[in-house]
Specification:
- By secondary structure, the chain is mainly beta.
- It has a single domain, classed as Pnp Oxidase, Chain A.
- It contains two helices and twelve strands; from the N terminus they run ββββββαββββββα.
- A hairpin with a 4-residue loop joins strand 10 and strand 11.
- The chain is globular, with a radius of gyration of 20 Å.
Protein backbone atom coordinates (compact mmCIF):
# COMPACT_ATOMS: atom_id res chain seq x y z
CA UNK A 1 0.00 0.00 0.00
CA UNK A 2 1.23 3.49 -0.81
CA UNK A 3 1.10 6.45 1.57
CA UNK A 4 -0.89 8.32 -1.09
CA UNK A 5 -3.81 5.87 -0.80
CA UNK A 6 -6.88 7.43 0.78
CA UNK A 7 -8.06 5.70 3.97
CA UNK A 8 -11.81 5.10 4.02
CA UNK A 9 -13.26 2.57 6.46
CA UNK A 10 -12.64 -0.53 8.51
CA UNK A 11 -14.68 -3.21 6.73
CA UNK A 12 -14.55 -5.58 9.66
CA UNK A 13 -12.22 -6.80 12.38
CA UNK A 14 -11.67 -9.77 14.66
CA UNK A 15 -10.08 -10.13 18.07
CA UNK A 16 -7.96 -13.17 18.95
CA UNK A 17 -6.48 -14.37 22.23
CA UNK A 18 -3.72 -16.95 21.74
CA UNK A 19 -4.99 -17.58 18.21
CA UNK A 20 -8.59 -18.19 19.35
CA UNK A 21 -11.31 -15.85 18.10
CA UNK A 22 -13.16 -14.05 20.87
CA UNK A 23 -16.38 -12.21 20.15
CA UNK A 24 -16.75 -8.54 20.88
CA UNK A 25 -19.74 -6.29 20.28
CA UNK A 26 -18.46 -4.42 17.29
CA UNK A 27 -16.39 -1.75 18.98
CA UNK A 28 -13.02 -1.73 20.65
CA UNK A 29 -11.43 1.51 21.84
CA UNK A 30 -7.69 1.65 21.28
CA UNK A 31 -5.51 3.38 23.87
CA UNK A 32 -4.71 7.07 23.82
CA UNK A 33 -1.00 7.87 23.82
CA UNK A 34 -0.47 10.93 26.02
CA UNK A 35 3.15 11.82 26.61
CA UNK A 36 4.26 12.63 30.12
CA UNK A 37 5.18 16.30 30.01
CA UNK A 38 6.86 18.95 32.11
CA UNK A 39 6.11 22.65 31.88
CA UNK A 40 9.19 24.66 30.96
CA UNK A 41 9.54 28.40 31.12
CA UNK A 42 12.37 30.83 31.53
CA UNK A 43 14.61 33.39 29.91
CA UNK A 44 14.47 33.26 26.13
CA UNK A 45 11.13 31.42 26.03
CA UNK A 46 7.89 33.27 25.39
CA UNK A 47 5.62 31.85 28.06
CA UNK A 48 5.38 28.16 28.83
CA UNK A 49 6.09 25.04 26.79
CA UNK A 50 4.84 21.56 27.66
CA UNK A 51 7.87 19.39 26.86
CA UNK A 52 7.20 15.67 26.27
CA UNK A 53 9.58 13.21 27.92
CA UNK A 54 10.78 10.99 25.06
CA UNK A 55 9.14 7.58 25.17
CA UNK A 56 7.34 8.24 28.46
CA UNK A 57 3.56 7.86 28.35
CA UNK A 58 0.73 8.18 30.82
CA UNK A 59 -1.43 5.17 31.61
CA UNK A 60 -2.87 3.64 28.42
CA UNK A 61 -6.23 1.87 28.44
CA UNK A 62 -7.82 -0.38 25.83
CA UNK A 63 -11.60 -0.71 26.18
CA UNK A 64 -13.15 -3.94 24.96
CA UNK A 65 -16.92 -4.05 24.62
CA UNK A 66 -18.92 -7.26 24.45
CA UNK A 67 -22.54 -7.93 23.52
CA UNK A 68 -23.34 -10.07 26.56
CA UNK A 69 -21.52 -11.86 29.37
CA UNK A 70 -19.14 -14.32 27.75
CA UNK A 71 -16.29 -16.62 28.89
CA UNK A 72 -13.46 -14.46 27.39
CA UNK A 73 -14.41 -11.57 29.67
CA UNK A 74 -13.60 -13.68 32.70
CA UNK A 75 -10.43 -15.10 31.12
CA UNK A 76 -9.20 -11.54 30.56
CA UNK A 77 -9.89 -10.66 34.21
CA UNK A 78 -7.02 -12.87 35.45
CA UNK A 79 -4.48 -10.27 36.58
CA UNK A 80 -1.82 -12.86 37.40
CA UNK A 81 -1.04 -13.08 33.66
CA UNK A 82 -0.44 -10.43 31.06
CA UNK A 83 -3.21 -10.80 28.49
CA UNK A 84 -2.27 -10.58 24.80
CA UNK A 85 -4.82 -9.78 22.13
CA UNK A 86 -4.31 -9.66 18.38
CA UNK A 87 -6.70 -7.55 16.34
CA UNK A 88 -6.93 -8.18 12.61
CA UNK A 89 -8.83 -5.56 10.63
CA UNK A 90 -9.51 -5.05 6.94
CA UNK A 91 -8.84 -1.43 6.09
CA UNK A 92 -10.39 -0.14 2.89
CA UNK A 93 -8.33 2.41 0.99
CA UNK A 94 -8.70 4.03 -2.43
CA UNK A 95 -5.88 4.47 -4.91
CA UNK A 96 -6.40 8.09 -6.06
CA UNK A 97 -4.55 7.45 -9.35
CA UNK A 98 -6.88 4.66 -10.48
CA UNK A 99 -9.90 4.98 -8.20
CA UNK A 100 -9.52 1.29 -7.32
CA UNK A 101 -10.33 0.00 -3.85
CA UNK A 102 -7.51 -1.68 -1.96
CA UNK A 103 -8.10 -3.91 1.06
CA UNK A 104 -5.19 -3.82 3.50
CA UNK A 105 -4.47 -5.79 6.68
CA UNK A 106 -4.26 -3.67 9.81
CA UNK A 107 -2.86 -5.78 12.63
CA UNK A 108 -2.70 -4.61 16.23
CA UNK A 109 -1.16 -6.49 19.15
CA UNK A 110 -2.01 -5.39 22.68
CA UNK A 111 -0.73 -6.70 26.02
CA UNK A 112 -1.89 -5.70 29.45
CA UNK A 113 -3.91 -6.55 32.52
CA UNK A 114 -7.56 -5.94 33.35
CA UNK A 115 -7.98 -2.87 35.49
CA UNK A 116 -11.72 -2.32 35.30
CA UNK A 117 -14.64 -4.56 34.40
CA UNK A 118 -18.22 -3.40 33.97
CA UNK A 119 -20.46 -6.47 33.80
CA UNK A 120 -23.17 -4.52 31.97
CA UNK A 121 -26.90 -5.00 32.35
CA UNK A 122 -29.53 -7.67 31.95
CA UNK A 123 -32.62 -6.71 29.95
CA UNK A 124 -34.99 -8.93 28.01
CA UNK A 125 -34.21 -8.86 24.28
CA UNK A 126 -31.29 -6.44 24.69
CA UNK A 127 -27.52 -6.50 24.72
CA UNK A 128 -25.94 -6.37 28.15
CA UNK A 129 -22.90 -4.43 26.92
CA UNK A 130 -20.29 -5.55 29.44
CA UNK A 131 -16.93 -3.79 29.04
CA UNK A 132 -13.42 -4.59 30.15
CA UNK A 133 -10.51 -2.14 30.36
CA UNK A 134 -6.95 -3.37 29.92
CA UNK A 135 -4.06 -1.35 31.31
CA UNK A 136 -2.01 -1.52 28.13
CA UNK A 137 1.73 -2.05 28.50
CA UNK A 138 2.51 -3.16 24.93
CA UNK A 139 1.11 -1.89 21.65
CA UNK A 140 2.19 -2.77 18.12
CA UNK A 141 0.43 -1.52 14.99
CA UNK A 142 1.19 -2.88 11.52
CA UNK A 143 -0.36 -1.70 8.27
CA UNK A 144 0.09 -3.91 5.22
CA UNK A 145 2.98 -5.72 6.94
CA UNK A 146 4.92 -2.56 7.90
CA UNK A 147 5.32 -1.69 11.58
CA UNK A 148 4.00 1.81 12.19
CA UNK A 149 4.30 1.86 15.98
CA UNK A 150 5.69 -0.39 18.68
CA UNK A 151 5.58 0.67 22.31
CA UNK A 152 6.79 -1.72 25.01
CA UNK A 153 6.67 -0.10 28.44
CA UNK A 154 8.32 -2.99 30.30
CA UNK A 155 10.80 -3.73 27.49
CA UNK A 156 11.85 -0.06 27.32
CA UNK A 157 11.11 0.15 23.62
CA UNK A 158 9.46 2.80 21.48
CA UNK A 159 9.62 2.68 17.69
CA UNK A 160 7.80 4.88 15.20
CA UNK A 161 7.92 4.02 11.48
CA UNK A 162 10.93 1.79 12.14
CA UNK A 163 12.91 4.46 14.03
CA UNK A 164 14.07 3.32 17.46
CA UNK A 165 13.23 6.51 19.35
CA UNK A 166 14.77 5.18 22.59
CA UNK A 167 18.13 4.03 21.10
CA UNK A 168 20.20 7.00 22.30
CA UNK A 169 18.55 7.07 25.70
CA UNK A 170 19.19 3.33 26.24
CA UNK A 171 22.82 3.84 25.14
CA UNK A 172 23.27 6.73 27.58
CA UNK A 173 21.79 4.69 30.43
CA UNK A 174 23.48 1.38 29.75
CA UNK A 175 26.82 2.52 28.39
Amino acid sequence: MKASFLPEIINDYRVYKKGRFIGTSGELELPELSAITETNEGAGVLGEVETPATGQFESMVTKIKFAILHVPIFELMDTTESQELTLRADGQYTDPASGDTEDVLIKIVIRGKAKNTNLGTLAKGKKGEPELELETTYLKIEIDGSVMLELDKYGYGYKVLGKDVMAKIRKNLMG
